[in-house]
Amino acid sequence: MGYLLDANVFIEAKRRHYGFDFCPAFWDWLDTQHAAGMVFSIEKVGDELLSGNDELSEWVGQRGARFFLPPDDRMLASLAAVADWVRGQRYRPGAIGAFLEDPDYYLVAYAHAHGHVVITHEVLCLDKRQLKGTRDTAEIQPWNLCSLDLPTASEELDLEDSDG
Prior knowledge:
The protein has 164 residues and is an alpha/beta fold. It has helices spanning 7-15, 24-35, 43-50, 55-67, 73-87, 93-100, 103-114, 134-140, 150-156, and strands spanning 3-5, 39-42, 68-69, 117-119, 147-148. The relative contact order is 0.17.
């Protein structure tokens, strides 16, 4: 089992507590966890982050497909399962359509296909007029997928002991 990072994890880390100039150890830790086969993201998240034209987009560009995994046959097959589940939840058609066009859809499908855990900062929204991405699908769906925030995930990955 690995952890798939949502775009907001990278963005919030850069903007808040783990800026590249203030806390480069965080970004090194991500590389270390990736090398250990624990932390990844997907191509669509990478594409979203590359559009920023900043330090984060440079960091993403240096890692490419080895960190930001391209679609594979298992993920493509899971897209249908995720879409069917979302359509069966009585969300408004506009919310469903927006989700199915969002990178979160692909992130959830990749996690579903490979048994990974999604790490996100998104908040669960039970309002059936909206579908807010990874947190909604992770909290109330029928498959083995859960969604963690970064502090919880870093405890599970033993962030505090990463230098030893």
